[in-house]
Amino acid sequence: MQPEAKCGRSAVEEVLNSLPAYEHAIRGEARLMVVTNGAGFTAEAKRLAAENRIRLVDRRGLPRLRFEGN
Predict the structure, then answer these.
(1) Which H or E run contains 62?
(2) Which site from 12, 22, 41, 49 is most exposed, i.e. has the minimal number of CB atoms within 10 Å?
(3) Rounded to 5 degrees, what are φ and ψ at 51?
(4) Helix crossing, 9-17 with 19-26: angle to 10°?
């Protein structure tokens, strides 16, 4: 990926398409997120993520990213 490129819809679709597998593995509701070291997300990626409650984290948000248990 180019440093100033924005992450597109396909990244959000990939996570969304794997939702059934995640929910089966954890036997519950999964909280989905797409993380990139890219410059941000396209408008289409943001729209799709918002419609499906998927959290988007770009390079500016990486320092603030925390995981449960850590």
Answers:
(1) none
(2) 22
(3) -65, -25
(4) 40
Tell me if residue 33 falls in helix, strand or coil: strand
In the chain, the amino acid numbered 66 is R
Tokens of 50: 């918002």
3-state secondary structure of 50: helix
35, amino acid identity:
V
Give dist(CA 57, CA 61) in Å, integer.
5
Q: How many CA atoms within 13 Å lie on the side-chain side of 48?
A: 19
What mean pLDDT is predicted for residues 2-15?
A: 90
| pLDDT above 90 (res 62) | no
Q: Give the single-character DSSP code of 68.
A: T
Whether the CB-CB separation of 34 and 1 falls below 8 Å is answered with no
pTM summary value: 0.81
Contact 11, 34 (CB under 8 A): yes
